[in-house]
Hints:
Layout: H1 3-29, H2 32-53, H3 59-78, H4 82-91, H5 106-114, H6 121-131, H7 137-144, H8 148-164, H9 174-196, H10 207-223, H11 228-241, H12 267-285, H13 293-306, H14 315-328, H15 332-346, H16 348-356, H17 359-362, H18 366-378, H19 382-395, H20 399-410
Helix pairs in contact: 1-2, 1-3, 1-5, 2-3, 3-4, 6-7, 6-8, 6-9, 7-8, 9-10, 9-11, 10-11, 11-12, 11-13, 12-13, 13-14, 14-15, 15-16, 16-18, 18-19, 19-20
Amino acid sequence: MTGPTVEQAITRAHHEEWARVVARLARRFGDLDVAEDATAEAFAAAAQRWPHEGVPPNPGGWLATTATRKAIDHLRRESQRDAKHQAALIVSDDTPPQPTGPVEDDRLRLLFTCCHPALAMEARVALTLRLLGGLTVVEIAHAFLVPETTMARRITRAKAKIKAARIPYRVPSADDIRERLAGVLAVVYLVFNEGYLASTGDDPMRRELTNEAIRLGRLLRSLLPDSGEVTGLLALMLLTDARRSARVSRSGELVTLDEQDRGAWDRTLIAEGNALLRERVAAVASGGDPPGRYQVQAAINLVHTNAPSARDTDWSTIVALYGRLVVLDPSPIVRLNRAVAIAEVDGPAVGLAEVDRLADLLDGYHAFHAARADLLRRLRRGRESRAAYDRAIDLAGNPAERAYLTRRRDQLGD
């Protein structure tokens, strides 16, 4: 087998097996550092051996077995105490564990462990993205809009706190699940977003991440069928993922919502998202909890997907929904999206004024400058628009976005 083919196999195995192997080791060994380090060593061994020995028929099984051996070797090296040796022998037993508690999937168990309330919310999300999503520190830092060094320290501190506080890797109780749900949903959504429009790398989209996020969303819904936010997040991901095939052109350029071929959208996913939201509307009407942020975001996406064409979009409803979302989540990115919607209702000058209020908060965010560039273009302020496009291109990490922004900039008149 040639080098590039082996490299592709290792990359694919990393995408598909990293989380599964880490979660399995975390369950068996009860130590996140051991689980991550042993998994990393297994992938390093694969990179060294597969080019000469060939890719095994079952890469995931090979990686899991190798990682388990690495973890046992680590435990034996770390201590000469008899108890440690005995523990290493016990965990080497391949007898399947007895399923107990409400969470049966190892990766979901690891999600809830990393989302322990003793950790700050940002630390929970960052740690889980690293351990479950297999994202690099650079990718996670981009998702949080913070420097790489800051994110590296955050992840290190989170793992240290888990160890110092002796937070156990165990099957969470029903109370644990409800207490940690917000952090778990945030993790799943960030994994989805990283897959839907990758922040770094040569691939505009990473389908294995969007698929994994949706899979986790479905598992969460089966676990908590009465949770409005679980249903809302799943609907949001389905409605967004339905547009995936129209998201990037054949030339590798991002295709914005108003330019997409709506006939290429996945109507099956849209129908499923519609059904989930109808279920939530009925639940709220029957006295259920008011909709949370994921349900409102899903409703916004539903307005877009139900419009026959971009010109038929009900922007007034979208502005109203963003008004509700700002109350639930007053983050600058939500306010930026609301400002873009306002521009469609009240004109680009009004929208630009709203966008510019966020300059101090979002100067390092490429979408802020892209939104300014488009509004300035519509106001025929070409020189300022070009400067904003340049800034957006410099900050964008996705090649499809850079290609789109470059074309839009180059279409500006002098």
